[in-house]
Design brief:
This protein is an alpha+beta fold and 213 residues long. The protein is 45% helix and 18% strand.
Length: 213
C-alpha cells in the first residue's frame, strides 16, 4: 500500500494530478483546494490514501495529513464516498469540520457541493458520537498544550454562566475523544484569554484551535 509520495508535479488536471517519483508517474486524485496549490515542476510531498477494489487501484492525495485522516473518517458515514468527502474538505476547513462535529452542526456539512440536507444531518449526527480521526504519526487529540495540567487560578472569577458553558464545552470535547485534562486545559485557556461570556459554540471552536496540532 502507498502511504506517501514525494516527487515532482508533472501535471495537474481538474480532479487529479500526476506525481513523478524517480521517473514513475503516479496518478493521484485530489480535491480542488489541494490541486489549486500544486505547481507543475515543483517538488511536493503528498499524504496518500490508497483504495484497492477488484477492478481499481486508486490513490487519493493530500498536502496535509490531518485532511487525509478526515477524508477517511468522513467516509465512515453511510452514503459518504470519496467524492462527497472531497467536497466537504473543499468547502469547509478541517478546523471547522471538527467544530461542526462537536456541535452537531449539519448546516456546515450542507455547504459542500452534492451534500443534501439528509446526508448532512446523518454526518453531523453519526460523527458526533465517534472519536476524532488520528492520522499517521499524528494524535489529533494531543498537542503541546497537553504538557501541563489545566491552570485553575481564574476559576473563582468565572460567573455561574461561564462555569456552565465551561462544563458543556469540556463535555463536547470529551465526546470527540480528547482526554479530560487536555479538554479542561483548552477550555480554561480560552476563557482565561478573554473568552469569558462567550457562547458555548464559540468556546468550543476556540478550544479546538487550541488543541490543533
Amino acid at each position: 500500500m502507498i502511504g506517501m509520495l514525494k516527487g515532482v508535479v508533472d501535471a495537474v488536471g481538474a480532479d487529479e494530478t500526476v506525481i513523478d517519483v524517480n521517473g514513475v508517474g503516479y496518478l493521484v486524485a485530489a480535491g480542488v483546494q489541494t490541486l489549486a496549490r500544486l505547481e507543475v515542476g515543483a517538488q511536493v510531498k503528498m499524504h496518500i490514501e490508497t483504495h484497492v477494489r477488484e477492478d481499481a487501484f486508486k490513490l487519493f492525495g493530500f498536502l496535509d495529513e490531518t485532511e487525509r485522516a478526515w477524508f477517511v473518517h468522513l467516509q465512515s458515514v453511510q452514503g459518504v464516498g470519496a467524492k462527497a468527502a472531497f467536497a466537504i474538505l473543499d468547502a469547509v476547513p478541517v478546523s471547522e469540520i471538527a467544530s461542526a462535529v462537536a456541535l452537531g452542526d449539519k448546516a456546515t456539512f450542507g455547504r459542500a457541493k452534492g451534500v443534501g440536507p439528509k446526508l448532512a444531518t446523518r454526518i453531523a449526527t453519526e460523527l458526533k458520537d465517534k472519536a476524532p480521526p488520528v492520522g499517521r504519526n499524528l494524535g489529533i487529540g494531543l498537542s503541546a498544550h497537553a504538557a501541563t495540567p489545566s491552570a485553575t487560578s481564574t476559576s473563582g472569577k468565572a460567573s455561574s454562566d461561564d462555569g456552565a458553558v465551561r462544563e458543556e464545552a469540556v463535555s463536547a470535547l470529551l465526546n470527540l475523544g480528547y482526554a479530560e485534562t487536555v479538554a479542561r486545559q483548552a477550555v480554561a485557556t480560552v476563557q482565561r484569554n478573554g473568552g469569558e461570556g462567550l457562547e458555548l459554540g464559540e468556546v468550543i471552536r476556540q478550544s479546538l484551535k487550541e488543541l490543533a496540532p
